[in-house]
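Quick review question:
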């Protein structure tokens, strides 16, 4: 390990949905630990470029790639571009996400397909593509949700269903990839202050009542666990679902 550059020196990470929120905090955190980082985004090139600038200011390499997680060809191309541009791939963080809200009666087939495309098929395809590049000892870290462990209010059945698929994928892949010392884990953030779920929204007060610690997480608090799983301290953790939810599911 190059202790001067951090525990992830000479490693390359790809973070999907790294332009804002939790993904941006993860991308920055992995860079602070020494990794070069590629990040994908959907629309917000300005925000992606800002994260790239912050990472390069740390002395690390960074690249932003427009890639819709619902588009398998774009996801595969983003993985290949990461390995091609940054020379290797060690860590894949499947973070890109959307928040469909509403009753099952009001949910269209298009929204169902889109949510599953981003949260399930996109994760599967990104991981499949990454496996062609991942070094032995690599890491796959999926971002789930506290709503996998507990659904205390209505309107989130589709969201909870889509994130729940990652439990099976994570466990199965942990078994498939253990022989290569590649670990696969699932992090369940709780209510985290981002544009998806602002801590100052009208709904936030009710959501806060479900949290044992009584407050929203900062994105960096979720990123801290991802950094641990990506680093040397995470090498014996695989197939796990880890809640970083302030006790939402307690
Ligand atoms: P956010 O602030 O809305 O940011 C979403 C990120 O995902 C952005 O970088 C966005 O790119 C990207 N993205 C959205 N749709 C995409 C697509 N189709 N293809 C590629 N990228 C896409 O969300 P967040 O709160 O940071 O959430 C990050 C992850 O944590 C998600 O998986 C979410 O479900 C999960 N999570 C969040 C919370 C919470 O309370 N915030 C709680 C539990 C789990 P653009 O900037 O280009 O739009």
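Suggested answer, residue by residue:
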């Amino acid at each position: 390990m190059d202790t001067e550059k951090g525990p992830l020196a000479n490693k390359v990470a790809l973070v999907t949905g790294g332009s804002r929120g939790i993904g941006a905090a993860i991308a920055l955190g992995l860079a602070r630990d020494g990794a070069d980082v590629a990040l994908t985004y959907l629309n917000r090139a300005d925000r992606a470029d800002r994260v790239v600038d912050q990472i390069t200011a740390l002395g690390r390499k960074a690249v932003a790639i427009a890639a819709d997680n619902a588009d398998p060809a774009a996801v595969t191309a983003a993985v290949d571009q990461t390995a091609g541009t940054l020379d290797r791939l060690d860590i894949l963080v499947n973070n890109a996400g959307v928040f469909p809200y509403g009753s099952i009666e009001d949910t269209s087939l298009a929204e169902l397909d889109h949510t599953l495309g981003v949260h399930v098929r996109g994760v599967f395809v990104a991981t499949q593509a990454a496996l062609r590049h991942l070094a032995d000892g690599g890491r796959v870290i999926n971002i789930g949700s506290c709503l996998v462990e507990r659904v205390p209010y209505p309107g989130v059945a589709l969201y909870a269903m889509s994130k729940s698929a990652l439990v099976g994928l994570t466990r199965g892949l942990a078994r498939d990839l253990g022989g290569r010392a590649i670990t696969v884990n699932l992090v369940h953030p709780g209510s985290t202050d981002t544009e998806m779920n602002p801590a100052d929204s009208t709904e936030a007060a009710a959501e806060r009542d479900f949290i044992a610690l009584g407050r929203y997480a900062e994105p960096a608090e979720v990123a801290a666990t991802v950094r641990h799983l990506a680093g040397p301290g995470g090498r014996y953790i695989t197939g796990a679902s880890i809640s970083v939810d302030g006790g939402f599911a307690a």
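Why it works: The pocket of NAP is lined by residues 16-23, 40-44, 47, 68-70, 95-98, 118, 143, 145-146, 189, 191-192, 194-197 (CB under 6 Å). Strands lie at 12-15, 36-41, 62-66, 89-94, 134-143, 183-189, 241-244.
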